[in-house]
Design a protein that fits this description.
Helices cover 21% and strands 33% of the residues. The protein has 150 residues and is α+β, with helices and mostly antiparallel strands.
């Protein structure tokens, strides 16, 4: 029997790492990153992933779809501070469902995990209708990167 969680495996060989410097406007008066910016860092990681693997928001839009986020989770472990150079690791989770799941790990300047999280995006067509199966461009992309074996 296959358990539901076994259907969702991180494609770690597709992980993309992106470094950014914490900006002044992202911090509170103590110089600590405000919690809401961690979701922005997830987006930075997701955009880097998309550019690297040819599945950016623009690529998706050119295929006639949008991918709104329907769920996000964020678990804070350590504080990030103004001026830190941080690293965001973004990994896609291989799922048979018609959605994109990304997992994130944010490392602080000492290379310690400061935050982990996940986002789930669904596919909408140009009329705003929810896709119940993976769009053809996404199936093709999954084949290209080796997530679907023929």
């Amino acid at each position: 029997m296959i358990r539901r969680k076994e259907l969702y495996k991180e494609a770690t060989d597709l992980t993309v790492s992106e470094e950014i410097r914490v900006r002044f406007n992202e911090t509170d008066p103590l110089g600590i990153v405000w919690h809401g910016y961690y979701i922005t860092y997830f987006e930075d990681g997701r955009e880097a992933f998309g550019r690297h693997h040819g599945i950016s928001y623009l690529d998706i839009a050119d295929s006639g779809y949008t991918t709104p986020i329907v769920k996000s989770t964020c678990e804070h472990k350590l504080s990030l501070r103004y001026g830190d150079v941080i690293r965001i690791e973004t990994t896609i989770v291989d799922s048979p469902a018609a959605k994109m799941i990304f997992r994130y790990r944010i490392f602080d300047a000492k290379n310690e995990i400061a935050c982990t999280g996940e986002t789930v995006q669904v596919f909408l067509d140009n009329q705003g209708e929810l896709m119940l199966t993976n769009p053809p461009f996404f199936e093709e992309w999954k084949r290209k990167v080796g997530l679907i074996k023929e």
